[in-house]
Amino acid sequence: MSRISLENGECTAHSVSDRLLKLLKTRGPQQASDAGKALGTTGEAARQQFVKLAKEGLVEAKAETRGVGRPVQQWQLTPAGVACFPDTHAELTVQLLRTVRDKLGENALDVLIESREQENRINYIQAMVGAATLQERVARLAAIRCQEGYMAEWRQLQDGTFQLVENHCPICAAASVCQGFCRTELNIFSEVLRAQVERVEHILAGARRCAYHISPV
Hints:
The protein is an alpha+beta fold.
């Protein structure tokens, strides 16, 4: 069972250890001092929690050299820690997709993907009703994606464009078997945002997260 709960469209983590896991997931490797500041506690308190999580096999520390002086200790998620953020029914989903492809053919798999794309398109378009600006639409899309488990965030860049970041992919296993899921997401994002959307980071390509650059058409 995941240590992280998702409630009311927001990615929430209750205990200190859960908040640290979420911090590493959304921000990448952290020093204990920086993690303590982010959580409103001390670096030593964060370090003690990291040590406890390390004993559970969820995090690990790696030394990083930064110029002159002692190496700094960076804490990061282990594969077991990443698994705390579930890929929803991953094994079953992968088996079903492979069965569809093997028994019914590639066309049947395309039908499934198109059906999911259409359902998401309808839901996302409904969620955009009343959103007059691109900023409003990006904010609403991020909220929807966070509710779906993508741990999404957004921000406006200095040039007026936007960045949407998804720190987790709950369908990563399925997408690794059939990248059509990723392709349809880009199509939907462009349509519902009424903007140009470019994926600039991709988990399936080895990145820590998926990130999108969004600019007006």
